[in-house]
Write a structure and sequence with these properties.
Layout: H1 6-13, H2 17-30, E1 34-38, E2 41-45, H3 49-53, H4 63-82, H5 109-114, E3 119-123, H6 125-132, E4 142-147, H7 148-156, E5 160-163, H8 165-177, E6 181-184, E7 192-196, H9 202-208, E8 221-225, H10 235-239, E9 245-248, E10 253-256, H11 266-270, E11 276-280, H12 291-301
Antiparallel strand pairs: 1-2, 3-4, 3-5, 4-7, 6-7, 8-11, 9-10
Helix pairs in contact: 1-2, 4-9
Length: about 300
């Protein structure tokens, strides 16, 4: 949670500084700690399980680990999501937005990408995990971005490759066509952004099992139906990850369950009649500025106080 130099760790724990430096680097290479470089200096920090050490097992995950993760998802993760702020937030896919929406840049995947100088691309750890247990989907595998120091960590640990902004924007278009949901980390300045499906993504799967998914994602938008244009064709049903769309056969109209719509906009981009429209919910979510604020907010929601490691 809090970046510290090896010397700080050594001083706080009473260990030899050189041995501490070696051990921290071993842990960073194993994906149990985050590493950040600043010039010649190295800093390390503890990370959550999701998003954090789980994702960092991308290249070392085996079937045993994948099976255990599936068990954790089934037994604990859904209930934990219901009691906290989800680690990923849903934002509308770019083509579902128009000029009139005037969305903040952190609600626009393309603007997020354009604001980043260093970008890495990695395989989706959730699709890797699902394939190891014989499940999953046929959606694009390379679909997860990391930015800045997080991208550098992925590249240094051989989990991802550096790509340009132009490549990232092209991949966003491919993911949109494939019906994947844009999900940056739940903060204004995200260290990464995933393109997810409810077949594989642990967060989306967990949210989809809840009775009111819309209450558990940080999105200021949802979809409404233009009843004048809708013909009830049902194409939108297949695009929805949350089973939020049904068709009233008597009226030949699509019907949106607002409690289940997470505002991803995927149904908007494929509606042949342009009858699905992204709309502002009327109330803005307060998006955490960064990872530390996100974790503090979640701890407060659970009634837990976070004390910086250096203060213990």
């Amino acid at each position: 949670m809090q970046l510290e130099a090896p010397s700080d760790f050594a001083k706080r724990t009473g260990h030899d500084a050189e041995k501490m430096k070696e051990q921290l680097e071993i842990m960073a290479q194993k994906g149990t700690l985050f590493r950040k470089r600043s010039g010649e200096k190295l800093f390390y920090a503890a990370v959550p399980y999701v998003i954090g050490s789980y994702e960092f097992q991308l290249k070392t995950m085996d079937k045993e680990f994948a099976d255990l993760m599936e068990q954790y998802n089934d037994e604990k993760f859904t209930s934990s999501i219901s009691n906290c702020i989800a680690p990923l937030r849903t934002i509308p896919v770019h083509k579902s937005l128009t000029v009139k929406h005037n969305v903040a840049s952190y609600f626009n995947a393309r603007e997020i990408v354009k604001s980043k100088k260093l970008i890495s691309l990695a395989d989706c750890v959730c699709r890797v995990q699902q394939k190891l247990i014989g499940k999953g989907c046929d959606k694009p595998m390379e679909a997860c971005f990391a930015f800045g120091s997080h991208a550098k960590y992925y590249i240094e640990n051989n989990m991802g490759r550096e790509i340009s902004q132009e490549e990232a924007l092209a991949i966003l278009d491919e993911c949109e066509k494939a019906g994947l949901v844009n999900q940056p980390a739940s903060m204004i300045n995200p260290g990464g952004m995933c393109n997810c499906c409810s077949d594989c993504c642990g967060v989306l799967k967990a949210v989809s099992k809840l009775p009111k998914p819309a209450e558990h994602v940080m999105n200021d938008y949802r979809v409404k139906v233009d009843v004048e244009n809708c013909i009830g064709c049902g194409i939108c049903i297949d695009r929805c990850q949350m089973d939020a769309v049904t068709v009233d056969d008597e009226q030949s109209l699509a019907v949106i369950n607002k409690d289940r719509c997470i505002g991803c906009g995927l149904c908007v981009t494929t509606c042949p009649e342009e009858a699905m429209i992204i709309e502002f919910k009327g109330k803005e979510n307060t998006i955490p500025a960064n990872g530390m604020e996100y974790m503090v907010n979640n701890a407060n929601k659970r009634g837990v106080s976070l004390i910086p490691l250096s203060m213990k």
